[in-house]
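In the design runs reported in the main text, the only information available to the sequence generator was the tokenized backbone. The following block is the verbatim input for one such run; it is reproduced so that readers can re-run the procedure and compare outputs position by position.
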């Protein structure tokens, strides 16, 4: 099976793909949009994409693409611990530029403001891409924010370890696929969820309240709600909702009630959730 991920090697997405697909061929893509298009066009059988980080929130590029493009389904979720390192080609010299993915730069903002307030921040398509760039330019006074695996992959030094704002820093990754994927026993199944997007009828008072009440009075546990612009007109949104799949039949009844109220439902996936133990990551690096 061909599995696409946000590359190059050494990215967090590559780490997730390596834990989930032990015997499959992993194909790197330089951007999330390229990866999502490759899956949509069936160039790969599955894709690993970041969805939400505990510090910086949703990865909007992923969510917006899934909402606006076709019927792409998440078949599993992996919650992966994120530990950001400041990597350099040569230690103990000034750092004038720091490269990384926008999410990683944001996760390390407090550290950068404290220790490198004058450094110029440069955004890259992935953390591993930043690490590779630093390795290719050892003569420059630059650094990358990236995982420890990227330091091993590109022969870089760790200038500062674990620079993320929160010790408990995690990212949710979705496995996109056409059918359920069997995960290795090293991943720990914790719960089952369904993720969906609601589009409300325009100019209907209380539409969001009515939508949420379909879950509330059935005691369906909602774990997330977030609004995103519909990209049609100012002030028009769709709502991303995650529900625990403790009462699957009741959720289907809720969908029928939403349809009767002319509230459009787009399901992103019904999937099991797995976690990766930090000790397992350390043992692989």
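Verbatim output:
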């Amino acid at each position: 099976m061909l599995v696409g991920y946000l590359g190059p090697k050494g990215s967090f997405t590559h780490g997730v793909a390596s834990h989930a697909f032990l015997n499959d061929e992993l194909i790197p893509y330089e951007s999330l949009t390229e990866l999502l298009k490759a899956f949509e066009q069936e160039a790969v059988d599955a894709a690993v994409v970041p969805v939400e980080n505990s510090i910086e929130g949703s990865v909007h590029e992923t969510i917006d693409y899934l909402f606006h493009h076709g019927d792409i389904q998440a078949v599993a979720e992996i919650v992966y611990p994120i530990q950001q390192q400041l990597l350099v080609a040569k230690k103990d010299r000034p750092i004038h530029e720091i490269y990384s993915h926008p999410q990683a730069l944001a996760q390390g903002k407090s550290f950068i403001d404290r220790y490198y307030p004058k450094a110029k921040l440069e955004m890259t398509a992935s953390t591993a891409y930043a690490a590779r760039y630093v390795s290719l330019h050892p003569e420059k006074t630059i650094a990358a924010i990236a995982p420890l695996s990227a330091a091993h992959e590109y022969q870089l030094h760790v200038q500062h370890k674990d620079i993320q704002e929160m010790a408990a820093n995690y990212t949710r990754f979705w496995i996109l696929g056409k059918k359920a994927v069997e995960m290795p026993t090293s991943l720990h199944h914790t719960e089952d969820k369904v993720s969906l997007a609601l589009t409300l009828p325009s100019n209907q008072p209380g539409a969001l309240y009515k939508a949420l009440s379909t879950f509330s009075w059935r005691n369906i546990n909602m774990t997330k709600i977030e609004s995103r612009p519909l990209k049609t007109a100012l002030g028009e949104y769709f709502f991303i909702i995650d529900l625990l799949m403790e009462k699957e039949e009741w959720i289907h009844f809720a969908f029928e009630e939403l349809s009767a109220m002319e509230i459009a439902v787009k399901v992103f996936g019904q999937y099991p959730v797995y976690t990766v133990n930090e000790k397992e990551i350390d043992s692989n690096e």
